């Protein structure tokens, strides 16, 4: 329960008092970018000094003014660095943002930079920031996104990174990347949706069935899904043919991306930053 809150006068930073704690959300948009990261972007301290039923009067610069129940005002200072980081991120001054985080050496600031960079699709900076807070699995995922063959695939996987599966699927389908959309759901074990897309677009039904079969074998289970049982009757699973089709799909995507000026610009931009 949050009793009172106030936004900073110049940056996207929110302060509030909840239960017995004074809390500052240094980058509230983290909830839309990487929910797991949100707790690492928050500053909290004991709020007992504000007495009962306090109200935040304002939040200007790095100072929050709180009005106590008796009308007296109490001032508390907040770190000035998150606001500076917001300025750098807004202006896309990523090198300055990295220098600031290395100077301050606080995990909270690194976490904010990771979320800000992901929100702006600045993958190189995001990878450095996630590495600084020990999120190695996310660093690996970001590096994998960099190596994807097309702009559409990169955008879709950025959506997946933030948990927006439906948006990711929409981007891939609109770009005609049917296999990639199907594979997204296979990777997430959304078997029904994967099969639905394969049947609808009349492609890679055997790919879905093969991965489903392997999944069940790994967990020593038998197929009980009626739709999968139905389509399994008329489809022969041949891993060599499936792999050949997948390689062909990826090759076509690379070829298409290479002839698209916008995609070439994006890839050369990423290469320059590396």
UniProtKB/TrEMBL annotation:
Residues 1-81 form the IFT80 second beta-propeller domain. The keyword Amino-acid biosynthesis does not apply. Pfam families: Beta-prop_IFT80_2nd (PF23335), TPR_IFT80_172 (PF23387). It comes from the Eukaryota. Residues 261-274 have a biased composition (Polar residues). Residues 109-255 form the IFT80/172/WDR35 TPR domain. InterPro entries: Beta-prop_IFT80_2nd (IPR056456), TPR_IFT80_172_dom (IPR056157). The keyword Transferase does not apply. Residues 253-274 are annotated as: Disordered. Keywords: WD repeat. This is IFT80 protein. The lineage of its organism: Eukaryota, Metazoa, Chordata, Craniata, Vertebrata.
